[in-house]
Amino acid sequence: MRFANKVALVTGAGCVGPGWGNGRAMAVRLAQEGAQVWAVDFDPSRLAQTLALAGEHAQAIHPFECDVTDSASVKRMVQACVERLGGLDILINNVGGSAPGGPVEMSEEVWDAQINFNLKSVFLTCKHALPWLKARGGGAIVNMASTSGIRWTGSAQVAYAAAKAGVIQMSKVMAIQHAPDHIRVNTVVPGQLHTPMVESRLAGQRSGGDVQALLNQRLARIPLGFMGDGRDSASAALFLASDDARFITGTEIVVDGGMTVRCN
């Protein structure tokens, strides 16, 4: 029960389909380990399976609808969390999603939307949550990036890669700025996991809708020989959010089965 008496806010706590997405796994695991979880998604219907998978711990998960690219919406969401649950100790920023293309193929509109979704969302939640973490006497922020932010991972997705690299560096800056406030800021960098997004979105973008072909391509890049899922990201995020990581700030945990340390 590492998170007994803790309040955790998780964005992207729903999922685009059935199974263990990153945010869903984090919300469930936090509830199982004693936290009260403010589970945020822009589509509240996506939180239904999160609650179902939590089973007897579902009562510790509190769904809330929010557009995390809108500052006023984020401010209301954080305020509601504090008023309902009595404070805030942990913020996990999990919202994100990629769009294909390099600078020539990608429209400016898609670029702007990608930066807003993957990077501005983290800026806004931190902007509105940090004063509450400071008022609590400290806390932990865990931001979700991607191996696309540190390596080429098989396809051009220039805006997503730039945004996730930005998340990593923004986390480092916040870690130093807010260390005197006893607020730790770290990043989880997932690789090519088998989450519901593979079936719902990525296969259509990258393999003509052939899910198995995409899974085979991704698996071939992973030295450990199997693909993790959202529960693996959750394990890393919960470690960084917990007192087990009390002396860790401004760094990253890469969760990719060894993919990014291999040349091909």
Descriptive overview:
The chain has 264 residues and is of the alpha/beta class. It has one domain (7-195, 229-261): NAD(P)-binding Rossmann-like Domain (Rossmann fold, 3-Layer(aba) Sandwich), CATH 3.40.50. 43% of the residues lie in helices and 14% in strands. The chain has 8 helices and 7 strands. It has helices at residues 22-32, 48-54, 71-85, 108-135, 158-177, 196-206, 211-219, 230-241; strands at 7-11, 36-41, 61-65, 90-93, 139-144, 183-190, 252-255. A 7-stranded parallel beta sheet has the order 3-2-1-4-5-6-7, with helices on both faces. Helix 1 crosses helix 8. The protein is globular. The model has no long low-confidence stretch (mean pLDDT 94).
Average pLDDT metric: 94
What class do helices, strands and sheet pairing give?
alpha/beta
How many strands? 7
CATH architecture: 3-Layer(aba) Sandwich
Helix content: 40-55%
* Sheet with most strands: 7 strands, parallel
Shape: globular
Percent of residues in beta strands? 5-15%
Runs in which pLDDT lies below 50 for 5 or more consecutive residues are none
Helices and strands, in N-to-C order?
EHEHEHEHEHEHHHE
Rounded to the nearest angstrom, the distance between the terminal CA atoms is 41 Å
What is the gyration radius calculated from CA atoms? 17 Å
CATH topology: Rossmann fold
Number of helices: 8
Q: Report the top-level CATH class.
A: Alpha Beta
Q: Which homologous superfamily in CATH is the superfamily? A: NAD(P)-binding Rossmann-like Domain
How many structural units, i.e. domains?
A: 1
Strand order of the largest sheet: 3-2-1-4-5-6-7
